[in-house]
Specification:
Elements: H1 2-10, H2 12-31, H3 41-47, H4 56-62, H5 66-69, H6 78-93, H7 95-102, H8 105-135, H9 153-180, H10 185-207, H11 211-234, E1 236-243, E2 246-248, E3 251-253, E4 257-263, H12 270-288, H13 293-301, H14 307-328, H15 331-340, E5 343-344, H16 352-386, H17 397-420
Antiparallel strand pairs: 1-4, 1-5, 2-3
Helix pairs in contact: 2-9, 2-10, 6-7, 6-8, 7-8, 8-9, 9-10, 10-11, 10-17, 11-16, 11-17, 12-13, 12-14, 14-16, 15-16
Length: 428
C-alpha cells in the first residue's frame, strides 16, 4: 500500500490532484480558526471550558471545532448536509423532485441548484440563531464574559452575513475537490472536521486521572469498531442478473451476466445522524430553562447511558434505517430498468415479481444493517458514559463510521486512478 501511495505521487496529474485536495482541506481547517467580525477571540476561549457537550457537540464536530470558536466557518458542512437530506426527502413528497431525479444529468443539475439555494437559506437561519444565542449568553451558559463586546445590530448582522458567506465558500470548496481533486469533496471536508477533533479528545483523556488506562481502552475500542465498520461496509449481497441476447440492426447485443450489489448498510450514517439530532432536541430545550420540572426529567432520563435513552435511540436508528433505505433504493425503478434492457434475475419473472423480490431482499439485509448501526453508535456512548468521558470525548461511533467510509471510498478512487495507468493499486 505504501508503495502504491508513493507511486500515486510520482504520477504528475494524480500528484496534482492529491496536492490540490490537501490544499483545499488545509484552507478549510484554517477558516475554522479565523474569528468572525465582532467576535472577541479571547472571550470565546474563556467560555469554551463550559460549552462542551450537549446539543452543540455534533455541529461543533462537523465544523471542525469552528462552531464554538464562532469562526468564519462556524457552520461547517452541516447546512449542506441538511439541505441534501431535505432535497432527497422531497422526492417522496413533491412529484416534481422525483421527475427531476429521473431526467438524468440535467435533472441532477437542477436538484443540485436547489440544494445550493437551500444551503444558503439554512446558513442564514442557523447563523442568525447562533449569533443571537451567543450574544444573549445562551450558547455559553454561565460564562462571565460576552463573546460580542459590541453587540449592536449592525455588528451582529455583519457576523451573520460573514458566517453565511463562509457556508457558501465551504460548499464551493467541496465542489472544487469533486471536480479537480480526488474523491467526493463534501465527504472529505466532513472527514477533515471529524479527524481534527480526535487528537484533542485523546489529549483530554490523557490529562485525566488514570488517563493512560482509559487512553489504551479508548484506542482499543476505536480499533475494534474500525475493523467492524470496514468488514460490514465491504459486505454485499450480489443479486445475479442475466441479459438476454437481442439484435439491434446487424449486431447482436446482450447475453452477458452481471449482478446488483446491495450493501448491508444501504443507508450509510444518515439514520444515526437523524436519530442523534432528535435525541438532542430535548437536551437543547431543557438548557433554556434548566430549573423546570420537565427539564430535570429530561436531564435524568435522557442522560447518556440511561436505559430509556438507549432504547429510544435504538428504535429511532432502526426506523430511519428502513425509512431512508426505502427512499434511496427504489425496487420498482430498478426492475423497470432491467426489463427495458432485457435483463432478468434467474428464476424470477421480469416486472412486478422482480420488484417484489428486490424489496424482499432489501428488507432482509436492512434489518442486520440497522442493528449494526445501532450497536456501533451505542457502544462508544455507553462506554464513555461509564467512564465519565462525555466532556472529554466529542465524538463516538458515528464519527468513526463516517471517517472509515470516506477513507475507504477515497482509497478506491485513488486505486481506480492508478489502475487506469496500469500501476498496482492500494487494494491489490
Amino acid at each position: 500500500m505504501l508503495a502504491a501511495f508513493a507511486q500515486a505521487f510520482r504520477t504528475p496529474d494524480l500528484r496534482r490532484k492529491l496536492l490540490f485536495t490537501l490544499a483545499i482541506m488545509a484552507i478549510f481547517r484554517f477558516g475554522s480558526f479565523v474569528p468572525a467580525p465582532g467576535v472577541d477571540y479571547g472571550n470565546v476561549q474563556q467560555c469554551l471550558a463550559g460549552a462542551e457537550g450537549g446539543f452543540l457537540t455534533m455541529m461543533n464536530m462537523f465544523s471542525g471545532g469552528g462552531l464554538l470558536q464562532l469562526s468564519v466557518f462556524a457552520l461547517g458542512i452541516m447546512p449542506y448536509i441538511t439541505a441534501s437530506i431535505i432535497v432527497q426527502l422531497m422526492r417522496v413528497v413533491i412529484p416534481r423532485f422525483e421527475d427531476l431525479h429521473k431526467e438524468g444529468h440535467a435533472g441532477q443539475q437542477k436538484l443540485t441548484q436547489y440544494t445550493r439555494y437551500l444551503t444558503i437559506f439554512l446558513g442564514v437561519l442557523q447563523s442568525t440563531v447562533m449569533v443571537t444565542t451567543a450574544a444573549n449568553g445562551l450558547m455559553f451558559a454561565g460564562c462571565p464574559v460576552n463573546p460580542f463586546p459590541n453587540s449592536s445590530p449592525l455588528t451582529l448582522l455583519l457576523t451573520i452575513l460573514t458566517m453565511t458567506a463562509g457556508t457558501g465558500l465551504i460548499m464551493w470548496l467541496g465542489e472544487l475537490i469533486t471536480e479537480r481533486g480526488i474523491g467526493n469533496g463534501m465527504s472529505l471536508l466532513i472527514f477533515t472536521s471529524i479527524a481534527a477533533s480526535f487528537p484533542t479528545g485523546l489529549g483530554r483523556v490523557l490529562a485525566l486521572e488514570s488517563g493512560i488506562a482509559k487512553f489504551l481502552l479508548i484506542v482499543a475500542v476505536i480499533l475494534v469498531i474500525t475493523l467492524a465498520v470496514v468488514f460490514v461496509e465491504q459486505c454485499q449481497r450480489r443479486i445475479p442478473v442475466q441479459y438476454a441476447k437481442r439484435m439491434v440492426g446487424r449486431r447482436l447485443y446482450g447475453g452477458s451476466s452481471t449482478y446488483i450489489p446491495m450493501k448491508i448498510n444501504l443507508s450509510g450514517v444518515i439514520p444515526v445522524i437523524f436519530a442523534s439530532s432528535i435525541m438532542q432536541l430535548p437536551m437543547m430545550f431543557q438548557s433554556f430553562k434548566p430549573d423546570s420540572a420537565w427539564a430535570q426529567w429530561f436531564s435524568h432520563y435522557f442522560n447518556p447511558g440511561h436505559p430509556l435513552r438507549i432504547t429510544i435511540y435504538t428504535l429511532l436508528i432502526i426506523f430511519f434505517a428502513f425509512f431512508y433505505t426505502a427512499i434511496t433504493f427504489n425496487p420498482e425503478e430498478t426492475a423497470d430498468n432491467m426489463k427495458r434492457y432485457g435483463g432478468f434475475i434467474p428464476g424470477i419473472r421480469a416486472g412486478k415479481p422482480t420488484a417484489d423480490y428486490l424489496n424482499y431482499v432489501m428488507n432482509r439485509i436492512t434489518a442486520p444493517g440497522a442493528l449494526y448501526l445501532a450497536v456501533v453508535a451505542l457502544i462508544p456512548e455507553i462506554l464513555f458514559a461509564v467512564m465519565h468521558l462525555q466532556g472529554a470525548m466529542p465524538w463516538g461511533g458515528t464519527s468513526i463510521m463516517i471517517m472509515v467510509g470516506v477513507a475507504l471510498q477515497t482509497v478506491k478512487d485513488i486505486d481506480s486512478q492508478l489502475q487506469q495507468r496500469h500501476y498496482e493499486g492500494f487494494l491489490s
